[in-house]
Amino acid sequence: MLLDGHSLTLEKFKSIVEGREKVSLCPKAKEKLIKSRAIVEKAAQEDKKVYSINTGFGVLSNVKIDKDQLEQLQVNLIRSHCVGVGEIHTETESRAILLLRTHVLAKGFSGARSELVELCIALLNQGIHPVIPSKGSVGASGDLAPLAHLASVLIGEGEAFYQGKKMKGDEALQLAGLKPIKLAAKEGLSLINGTQQMTALGALTLLRAEETMDLADLVCATSLDGVLGTPRAYTDWVQQTRPFPGQIQTAKLLRTFMEGSEIYKSHENCDRVQDPYSFRCAPQVHGGVRELLTFVRHMLSIELNAATDNPLVNSDTGELISNGNFHGQPVAFALDILGMAICELASLSERRMAKLIDPSFSGLPTFLIKKEGLNSGFMMAQVTSAALVSENKLLSHPGSTDSIPTNNEKEDHVSMGPLCARKAKTILENTQTCLAIEALAAAQALEFRKPLKPGKGPQFLYRFVRERVSALETDRYLHQDIETILSTLKTGEMYEAMKKELRV
Q1: Alpha helices in 229-310 (DSSP H)
Q2: What is the Cα–Cα distance from 9 to 303, expressed in whole angstroms?
Q3: Are residues 12 and 97 both part of a single domain?
Q4: CATH number of the structural domain spanning residue 189
Q5: Are 209 and 358 part of one and the same domain?
Q6: What is the pTM of this model?
Q7: Each residue of 233-260: pLDDT tens digit?
Q8: How far apart are CA 239 and CA 250, in angstroms?
Q9: Helix extents (H) in 305-416
Q10: Are residues 182 and 210 in the same domain?
């Protein structure tokens, strides 16, 4: 796949990051790189102060650097900014960050040499992934610390993952037959000035959240059959009276999943007038989530192809322009919204789970287990779900409205975008766990509805779960059952199987 700096979609992003598709530099992009690099080199030879080329950084921008120290300036920048802390990003996350930073450089607005971009591409193609601590960026002036750890590998320092092992950066390069690069003027800052950490994490979370969205509808339909609920509230006519596209889409999926339900036919004329909100309002709540995911996709799709350097090189005019494109506020807002949206999928899931284990509503054995009392069944699984939902509520508090001055007040307003990205990731993981618990409980509920068959969606989910987890006859460790089903949500296995069988 060609990297040209402007045509990266979320689908291409996924193919390169998760599918390990090879990339190469677009010839036209290389031409622009050469042109913009000439402007940087010209500025480096002049006596006029130009930020990041012959000056210090941040509040030190008033300090002029001698010409014979310009290369050392860039190396010092990378070393001094390697201050990341906390949990290390996964290889997939590191690869995503590396891809986005490489793509930005390929735009030709950074002033980096084509040799530097080619080395980044070589790392991608050979699977060298920098070891990047997840914490240390406030999301303005770029994700400086995380990207500095990325850049350190390019100069033969830092650490990297290669062939399943963590090793020194220079060792990884040597084993792959690559040589570290000697940074030239501006190139150190060109590697670290950008929003690529927050954007990469956000993109990975969004892609999995979009899959989880459809699975939430599937699990909801299965629980609906389990509690003898009705899909009448999902009729298209109702949705068209309030025509939000997300609401219409969710209702359509729910109707599709419920097709052919013998369980529903068996109680179609019962005296229950309407179901609780967690079932009846699924199109409205799930649909609202869909609308926000669409917005987040729009925002991240723009940022994937955005120039986020300071200064930017205008190869048409020869200017180097100081600017604020590195500020992550638009992305931070979007990632906060992503977390809040996903949070509501868990909230409804836990409420449906509570209805499944409540005999006064479902008519099923208490906690979905025979010989209740001797057995506790799904009692504590619902408690776990409740705990995760409450944690999500705390995490959904916006990080993008916070700011703390840094760099001696020079950088006096920041976005906290990386925090928003990490929160959204955790909220998604918690929500997937809630849905895994509900899926187990819903499958257990269907055991008690036999020999009646559920709708085609619940039939699929029941088979999918039972191929991996047996019905609960007596108490056992449910932890492993939850982890087994959860792993299929995290990896996309359940989503891909659903698409293949149900063609949705």
Answers
A1: 236-240, 245-258, 262-266, 277-280, 282-304
A2: 10
A3: yes
A4: 1.10.275.10
A5: yes
A6: 0.97
A7: 999 999 999 999 999 999 999 999 999 9
A8: 10
A9: 329-356, 359-362, 379-395
A10: no
